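Q: Could you predict the 3D structure of 4-amino-4-deoxy-L-arabinose transferase?
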Amino acid sequence: MTSTSADPTIDDAKATGSIKRLRLLAALLLLALAVRFPLAFWPNIIHPDEIFQYLEPAWRMLGHDGIVTWEWRYGIRGWFLPTLLAGPVALGDWIAPGGAGAFVVPRVAAVFASLSIVVSAWFFGARVSRLHAIVAAFAAAVWFDLVFFAPHTLSEPLAAALIVPAALLVTDEPSQKRFVVAGALLALAFVCRFQYAPAIAVLAIGACWRRWRNLLPLVAGGLVVLLLAAIVDVTHGVVPFAWLIANIEQNLLHDRAAEFGVTPAITYLADFWILWSAAGVLLVAAIWRGWRHAPLLLVVALANLVFHSLIGHKEYRFIFLSVVLFVILAALGSADWIVALRSRRAWRPWAVPFVAGVWALLSLALAGASETMRDNWMRGIGAARLAAELRGDPDTCGLALYNLPFHLLPGRERLSGPSPLYALQPGDPLARGHLKELVQTTSPAFNRILARPDAAADLPAAFSRRSCAAVGNGDACIFARSGACAATSAATPFVINDTLVRLDY
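A: Sure. Here are the predicted structure tokens for 4-amino-4-deoxy-L-arabinose transferase:
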């Protein structure tokens, strides 16, 4: 019996094919990066959480002063995510001191984290064909929801960037090593966004449904991360995972989340209609065609959507994981359409450009089609402009917020820098009923005020209006006086964090 060696021609063809696939994937990643990277420098803020729940705590970890919200006073936030962000915050402050770098570099890191979704989409598609891989990765690279959320330091996009590759690992020729890694990713996603626990559980059960022994390496990988998260909590002087219990207590027993609004169960369906418009019908058709290629993704997406629909307080960002999975499934379905079109000779050369063009054009159109998206792109821009002016003013020695919510602003360091920051708010028990008199008596402590334009009559005569910009649902203006600031006992109780304690905010 003679031994035969492998055909070198076949080996060369496989190597050439692998190189082509890697080049295609690299090109799609560069495309994704090209549309996301500039957004890291665009200072819009989707929600105050990305500043006050993550970047401000990371900033305080580095020994700086920052705004402490009620969530941190009540201990309902974990330290793991701010600790992860502390490195990019420190690097950014070293590159560009003064708050701007500490804001931008973490957003750049979030952009790179989002690329895991594009890579995962490629490999989900590659299970079917190279065509499906290209279309899935292209859709994940350009779809406006995924692009818009990519630079924001929020728990939802960061958790999704961990769950999607974990789903890939546990469904694509899974091995014990892959289950360990997937378990670590899922545990990290849980620590970042524990509200994704039902979706994570559905994914784990679905992946282990036929071979329950795979739960062991999955749990083992997760326990390693949970232990690390516990160590981080202890390092910060808190009981491990006490934040989880406190969060459930505040939001379920004390209904704190309801204070921010309660909407009906169909809210997310309405959101899809508002943001996706009639294109949503096309996407549903594509999902219906493509779900068979990755049925577990559809189950996870629906489980996450249903769970969040049962919660009274709803925000579109909460279901970002479902949005990502729906887009991947729709992309796989649209690739099936390409296969069908290519079976017709007249369509053969145009099928791929046509479907890819539809994805790109729909994404570009929907990115600014609705009033909601236009508002999202501009949210926080006016506040950032006013903050940059204040932060760059060498004459600023103290700043007061007069009847202007702090959460509309981009964080303490970017707003006032080393200057003291005061908050004069009508709901404050120490200010209620005499806010106008209070600003007069405390004004020696600050020479800049941020207030609504119609508050001009309440302010001391020495303050004149300068720049104004859209902040929240109205304009806000900088009012300035000449001269220095003097310490005064009248202003001391109104340092912003003391005011927030009294407001329980």
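Q: Anything worth pointing out?
A: The chain has a mean pLDDT of 92.
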